[in-house]
Design a protein that fits this description.
Layout (H helix, E strand, L loop, with lengths): L16 E4 L1 H10 L2 H16 L2 H4 L1 E4 L6 E7 L2 E9 L2 E9 L14
Parallel strand pairs: 1-5
Antiparallel strand pairs: 2-3, 3-4, 4-5
């Protein structure tokens, strides 16, 4: 029996390593409070240990299937890019609604 699929069709218990985005994390952390840092770091660790998809509210980006939004708190979102089966990148950390549009979009014909 196969494990249940998470966003993007990846198994819900998949383990990932952080490939890119430490610059995004560092820039955000300069102005973040210690409690904000704590919840974001917990979410990132959950991504690496495979529990993110069971623990957090996740929103798939239907126009960019390899990207997802993690609702960390009511006011804080983490935008991630699944690079391949075992790595991810941080694209955005900040207020909900402020996430950048990263990558190509599909245009309607």
């Amino acid at each position: 029996m196969n494990p249940p699929a998470g966003p993007g069709g990846h198994p819900a218990g998949s383990r990932f390593r952080l490939a890119l985005g430490l610059d995004v994390l560092g820039a955000w952390a300069e102005a973040a409070t210690s409690s904000e840092k704590d919840v974001v770091y917990r979410a990132l660790f959950a991504m690496t240990d495979g529990s993110l998809f069971r623990t957090y509210r996740i929103i798939d980006d239907f126009q960019r299937p390899s990207q997802l939004f993690v609702i960390v708190t009511d006011r804080l979102v983490l935008q991630l890019l699944i690079n391949c089966l075992d790595s991810f990148s941080i694209l955005y950390i900040g207020p909900c609604g402020g996430a950048a549009v990263v990558g190509p979009t599909r245009n309607a014909a």
